[in-house]
Amino acid sequence: MSSLEIATQNETRILSVLVENKPRVLARVSGLFARRGFNIHSLAVAPTDDPERSRMTIVVAGDDATVEQMTKQLNKLINVIKITDLDPEVSVQRELMLVQVKADPSVRAQIIEIAGVFRAQVIDVGTETLIVECTGTPEKLHGLEDLLRPYGVVELVRTGRIAIARGTKAPKLKAVKNKPAAG
Amino acid sequence: MKLTGAQALIKSLEEVGVEVIFGLPGGAILPVYDPILESHIRHILVRHEQGAGHAAEGYAYATGRPGVAMVTSGPGATNIVTPVADAYMDSVPMVVITGQVGTPVIGTDAFQEADVTGITMPITKHNYLLTDPEEIPEAVAEAFHIASTGRPGPVLIDLPKDVSQAETKWYWPDALDLPGYNPTTKGHSRQIKAAAKLILESKKPVIYAGGGVIKGRAADELRSFAELTGAPVVTTLMARGAIPDDHELCLGMPGMHGNYTAITAMQRSDLLITLGARFDDRVTGRVDGFAPEAKIIHADIDPAELSKIRRADVPIVGDLTNVISALSRAVQSEREKKPSPDLGPWWAQLREWQKKYPLAYEGPNGDGLKPQFVVEKLHEVTGGDAILVSGVGQHQMWASQFWRFNSPYSWINSGGLGTMGFAIPAAIGAKVGRPDETVWAIDGDGCFQMTGQELITASISRIPVKIAILNNAYLGMVRQWQELFYDERYSEVALGKDIPDYVGWAESMGCAAFRVDDVDDVIPTIEKAQAIDDQPVVVDFRTDWTEHVYPMIPAGASNDEVILSKAEDPDATEDHVPAEGDTR
Ligand SMILES: Cc1ncc(C[n+]2csc(CCOP(=O)(O)OP(=O)(O)O)c2C)c(N)n1
Ligand SMILES: [Mg+2]
According to CATH, what is the number of the domain A92-162? Predict the structure, then answer.
């Protein structure tokens, strides 16, 4: 079963994981998910405003007990500083998609119009293809993908989600975990 | 002050109080072996790196302080992977230093290169690949802190050769920078109170004590808590001795080869007070059939163990010395408000089971010595005044069943990983850590053949351990499974009784050695072994190869299906599951 199928069976959750920006942290995190049989839907990582810290946004699939285990196991990693289980209600999620789509002159205008509706940008125009860049929620990107598919998708790349909590009050977040974890 | 990385490493180890390193040198770690000559740290040269790792574990078990092992890159490092995994599974504090090829050639498949931090990532609590000698003191300070606090475990430092050769300015960190590591040590007071309430409502409580009680050095607290509540205590394989076997509240070992009463008490319990245990499959049997009516209090230093296997009604994260004392206080104050249920009927039931189904065997002689008899006599002659170490197999279970563990921190074995060959090097480490204690290892003949060469280390380094081989000429535990579950189709389990000649082999390694075939020689030979304190001793006890470890719960079966030997059930004519086992 692909991770995608499992993801659709279970609820997806977004873990925002603050880690030390050290070598092999990504390997530690992804290795942990792999060996404990946890499913990662997507994982995005980059340094934060503090260059010594990175932020991983991990979209996972699982029931409450599984996600609880994931969080606890992640907390045991020495380089993991803090994990936030982001509640979709009070967070903003975005993903970036690049699509190269077949676009001979007869349909080019239609595609550009579709892109416009989605506030996507056409970032490259070739004789036979266009590259469209779009940022948005996963649902929006799915919507655009569905409309472009009939024209012939040559290649499609997505970044995986990143997410951030809305507002400034921490209590709005669900299950904020200050890392107390022993390990 | 300028030092080489190697000198900084040794100085750092001195700084954290290391007194002994178990190791074996080679190319990539060579620079570090030079300053060892000037250090007061004792280095013990093992004969195989696996021995270094298990010796470090044995040292840690015996002293409660991290054991240290040092090996070279590549094959040296991969040879120590098994002990690292063992220490990870059994939460043993250990620091392993591995040499690595120089940083410029890392990633090029250089001579004796192996990605050791990659290989050990899943089996260490944390690991380091150092790239600058300046990082050494900090990494050593952190490694010892991480290994020995929270849930203990192995930490590995991989040190490339150019890093140990380069010069650095010496400093010692006065604070650790570990923003992601802060173990919770004090149990949450609301949870403690909730637990106390459950305890005082329970009519059939069982204290389920695991290895965490030993690792957390909480045996005194456990005993007071048990005496306060009057609840029976089961001690898992990793917790034997956490409360004395002779204590009236102690029911002994539960699990696959536990005794009937300990197993069944958990099955019928209405409350498992779980302290530093982790619902291992060897204890629970089929999880959905385990202790079906019990509520669960689960206290552990590692939050990830809580509700991992069995949902906890009251989870408590914290250091067990703190948590258990807090539980005792809470029970006392709750009791002032409300009387607690009478545990009399529960104890009456437990005593009846104990009387009806004691651990037993037919002995002392069968087709050779009865292994259980040998264990009993070892205990008798030593008066139990010894650290007991074991290998993995039938002999391990007999050691755990038939030794009377009356003091904590004196039983050392490989539970989680079940590593054959653990006993001899671990015994060496234990003896180095507590040289004034007698250290006996009960080993299997199969296990002995895996790490027996470490007796050379013991002889040459003057570490007088004592080894009792329960020589059944078989990989006995595997043979038992083939007999019971594969229709007696014995496949690749015969070892041979006379090859090797254990006495000749042991003598060639500088040990005193004896062979015992006759029941009457058992006690006198143990006495002779006891009297030798200037060299290692090996006793080859020729045991009955047909003997089984009973009771037994088949893998995957429910804990209601305890198989007893006919010696253990007075009503039976052959090995079977007693009728009571099925009733509820
Ligand atoms: C390194 C390793 N290999 C294989 C096993 C599987 N195994 C478990 S017990 C056992 C037999 C042990 O034989 P021996 O040391 O003679 O002990 P006995 O069971 O006969 O007492 C084996 C092969 C293991 N636990 N560890
Ligand atoms: Mg054997």
Answer: 3.30.70.1150
